[in-house]
Amino acid sequence: MPGVILVGAQWGDEGKGKATDLLGARVDYVVKYNGGNNAGHTVVIGGETYALHLLPSGILSPGCIPVIGNGVVIDLGVLFGEIDAIEKRGVDTSRMLVSSAAHIITQYSRTMDNVTERFLGSRKIGTTGRGIGPAYADKISRVGIRVGDLFDEELLREKVEGALEQKNHLLVKVYNRRAISVDEVVDNLLSHAPRLAPMVADTSLVLNQALDRGETVLFEGGQATMLDVDHGTYPFVTSSNATAGGACTGTGVGPTRINRVVGVLKAYTTRVGEGPMPTELLDASGERLRAVGHEYGTTTGRPRRCGWYDAVVARYANRVNGLTDFVLTKLDVLTGLEKIPVCVAYDVVGVRHEELPLDQSAFGAAVPIYEAFEGWTEDITGARTFEDLPAAAQRYVLALEAVSGCRMSVIGVGPGRDEIVVRHDLLVG
């Protein structure tokens, strides 16, 4: 049985939670390998909607073991709040595992996130203000706090003192804020230690042993390809590696153990936050996509920027992730459109680009080159085979497959977990 990576192939919010849930009953472990509570998955089960942020989507699948890997940054208050919320709805969270090497979002992480974003003014990145970027910055600067540190109070205090020595100077002298007390931070972190302790494990060892036994491990990426800190639309990106390579560094599982890499994308394009988006629609068409697709952030509630399908982005995601399959979501949102434009290339100052431009300024100047496809009016939410779809919808999917460079294996035709069309098994080569 395989190791499967599931990644977002656009700017996030593609429906990765639904794709993960689709596989959840057939996999043994679901692992979140990057990001923090700045991302969200929405899963609909039996008419019940679950909004997950830190928890892997596998938490909703009985028998599946959910894992938070070392590449995630964890706000412990948010984690336990989320666990409490879904336990009240009857979900069992006792199988949860957390890497001892995962870094923790502290009180000062959130403070630094908010004050620095305000300080940037018009040059702001558009962060969620949840402390994710500063927590990753501390990790790279080697002053971060890890889960395992919570069980050695002396070491924890020493690390917090070291981290705050510089930050308090910045807060007081540059940002005109009050200094943060070491005791305040340490006491807060230690208060979570007893509840966290039963979940903590060497998750790299656990996952590799599971693969040795022939069990299936699903690696679930947060955010998406175009938000990857290395391969996304820098600097308007997240602070971690949201591409397939991040699954290996974020879990301690080597690349030779990966068998399938699945990219999830919408039948159109959305984005939250700042930065260029060539196919963005600032007209009635964009408003229609937002209204029909309910395009508001799972984590922030912010309205998403909406645009037509961008095949240049899809081809790029295919390349940098080494995709074996696409999962195409929200095809039903396009029902009722007479014509559906698809961006097949960019015009950058009079030059046609089939591939993503190399630099930020060129991408910001990209003008989409569209091909239009015939729409359909029939309700497709009841389709369960590709042949059930209207002929025009079939042609649209096949056209996207051709211009995106990878097979469309699963198609979402509605919000429910069973409202899908499966063309190819994601666990089979």
Structural features, described:
With 429 residues, the chain is α/β, with parallel strands linked by helices. The protein has three domains: 3-98 and 199-262, 3-Layer(aba) Sandwich (Adenylosuccinate Synthetase, Chain A, domain 1); 103-196, Adenylosuccinate Synthetase, subunit A, domain 2, CATH 1.10.300; 264-422, Adenylosuccinate Synthetase, Chain A, domain 3, CATH 3.90.170. It is 32% helix and 20% strand. The protein contains twelve helices and 20 strands. It has a ten-stranded mixed sheet with strand order 9-7-5-2-10-1-11-15-19-20, sandwiched between helices. Helix 3 packs across helix 4 (132-140). The longest helix has 22 residues, at 153-174. The termini are close together. The mean pLDDT is 92.
Helix tally? 12
Low-pLDDT runs of 5+ residues are none
Annotated CATH topology of the largest domain = Adenylosuccinate Synthetase, Chain A, domain 1
**Distance N to C terminus:** 11 Å
Return the structural class: alpha/beta
What would you report as the Rg, rounded to the nearest angstrom? 22 Å
Helix content: 25-40%
As for the number of domains, it is: 3
In short:
By secondary structure, the chain is α/β, with parallel strands linked by helices. It is built from twelve helices and 20 strands. Strand 16 and strand 17 (351-353) form a beta hairpin.
